[in-house]
């Protein structure tokens, strides 16, 4: 893991050297050119870091000791809160896998293109959902097929 963290720091430093501090990808430049790829790499790595930081805080809270409220209602409320927190961390763990996959796609030159059609996903969609793997149309078609198969 330390080697991966070191590699991510190097990638971040390189991306920051390429980009202006206020850079935002625009439709006027080459799609998935050097600047855009550096921007998304930086965005994904920072997102991953923030997830790891939040997870570390949750682990620290768990390690600090269990809360033992005397009142049963307070205890039930605390346990519910912890259950929600742990489910959130589980969803974020899955998100980290998607972020890692997106970073691999950047390395392989496949980032920003639909895995179904090969068409550009589009900057607006990628800014909103940097781990997107399909265009909006392909995603909608996928969800319709999924719904039909669930209804059968």
The fraction of residues assigned to DSSP E strands is under 5%
> Low-confidence parts, pLDDT < 50 over ≥5 residues?
none
Helix content: 55-70%
What Rg is obtained from the alpha carbons, in whole angstroms?
Answer: 20 Å
Topology, number of strands: 0
**How much is the average pLDDT?**
83
Give me the number of helical elements. Answer: 5
End-to-end Cα distance? 44 Å
Silhouette: flat
Largest sheet: none
**What is the string of SSEs from the N terminus onward?**
HHHHH
Counting helices, strands and paired strands, the structural category is: mainly alpha
How would you summarize this macromolecular structure in one to three sentences?
The chain has five helices and no strands. By secondary structure, the protein is mainly α.
């Amino acid at each position: 893991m330390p080697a991966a963290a070191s590699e991510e720091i190097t990638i971040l430093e390189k991306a920051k050297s390429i980009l202006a501090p206020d850079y935002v990808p625009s439709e006027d430049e080459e799609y998935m050119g050097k600047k855009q790829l550096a921007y998304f790499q930086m965005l994904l790595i920072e997102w991953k870091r923030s997830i790891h930081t939040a997870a570390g805080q949750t682990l620290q809270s768990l390690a600090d000791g269990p809360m033992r409220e005397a009142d049963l209602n307070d205890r039930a409320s605390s346990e519910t809160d912890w259950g929600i927190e742990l489910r959130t961390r589980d969803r974020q763990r899955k998100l980290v896998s998607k972020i890692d996959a997106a970073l691999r796609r950047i390395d392989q030159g496949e980032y920003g293109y639909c895995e179904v059609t090969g068409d550009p996903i589009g900057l607006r969609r990628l800014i909103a959902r940097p781990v997107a793997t399909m265009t909006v149309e392909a995603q909608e078609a996928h969800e319709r097929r999924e719904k039909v198969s669930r209804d059968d």
